[in-house]
């Protein structure tokens, strides 16, 4: 150890074991250390491994380190963590209960039509259709967020349980769900995992919901639909554009001949909503899940450029309101807010290969709203 210390002795002991500490000083009241890797023959991997271990060792001591690089000099600054509070999950429970109710009402309104109840499924009461719709929507949104939660737990990052956001019936009954993190990810690998975990979980659940929804749906002749439109003028029929994966699944489970029409069950519509939500989250902009992925892959400066391209993609796809909201939030967010503690070490090769999975999900879930 050096002859003087400027931080918690245990924290400095970890630094001395994991790095060659060359200088130490205070910068903006934060203990700051100029360090060199223990393995100069492989500096990038040495710094990445050592810093990850440093994060794990300092977190229990109440510190979060942040790594930066200036030319060939690595700097580590220590930030004091906010004292952990005992989580109060009553708000989560209340919001979940309210959101469940608004989704159920939305599903009830979608299911309470004479064609479904009198013609297509006369033996199934309306409340069961609404219940199926509710379970489908909650599964897509809830498991998406629990995918994020699982990664934060594996990484030792303190995060909340999902907060469900209710919406008025007629708008799906929910605006989705979010979790909050108490600290940034350790490095770009962790940021990438955080961004990909939710969408890939939600997408897999959406596929299952789509299969169930299509099996509950009906393929009927266009002439019969025309007769229903005359018989039940209060029922509005609307054609919606399918994403690629839903088109493929419908061709397997509910293939249509030339003069046939697919009538979606509410669970099938829930799968359509799930694909729409997955696509929005995958757009590489701001702090959306796709934004985390692009930030981990491209770094801070190029991430802001690709975020602008992501907003343009929203506009071209017909998500005008979402594009405006993301643009406004991006202008109000600091450049460091979405970065990992180690923004120096590169993304691992395995995760760079997973970018192909990310791009594939974007292509499979694209829902062009401008076609509606």
3D structure, described in words:
The chain has a 4-stranded antiparallel β-sheet, with helices on one face. A two-stranded antiparallel ribbon has the order 5-6. By secondary structure, the chain is an alpha+beta fold. Strand 5 and strand 6 (174-178) form a beta hairpin. Helices cover 56% and strands 13% of the residues. It folds into 2 domains: 9-80; 90-371, no CATH class. Helix 6 runs antiparallel to helix 9 (266-282). The model has no long low-confidence stretch (mean pLDDT 92). It has helices at 9-18, 43-58, 90-111, 114-120, 126-154, 188-216, 222-231, 244-253, 266-282, 289-298, 300-317, 320-332, 349-365, and strands spanning 20-27, 30-36, 63-70, 73-80, 163-166, 174-178, 218-221, 260-263.
Précis, in short:
With 372 residues, the protein is an alpha+beta fold.
> What's the number of helices?
13
Mean pLDDT: 92
Order of neighbouring strands in the sheet with most strands: 1-2-4-3
Rg, nearest Å: 25 Å
Q: What sequence of helices (H) and strands (E) makes up the elements?
A: HEEHEEHHHEEHEHHEHHHHH
Structurally, the number of domains stands at 2
- Would you report the number of β strands? 8
Strand content: 5-15%
The portion of residues assigned to helices is: 55-70%
**Major β-sheet profile:** 4 strands, antiparallel
The secondary-structure class comes to alpha+beta
Assign an overall shape: elongated
Features:
372 residues, alpha+beta, 4-stranded antiparallel beta sheet, two-stranded antiparallel sheet, 13 helices, 56% helix, 13% strand, elongated
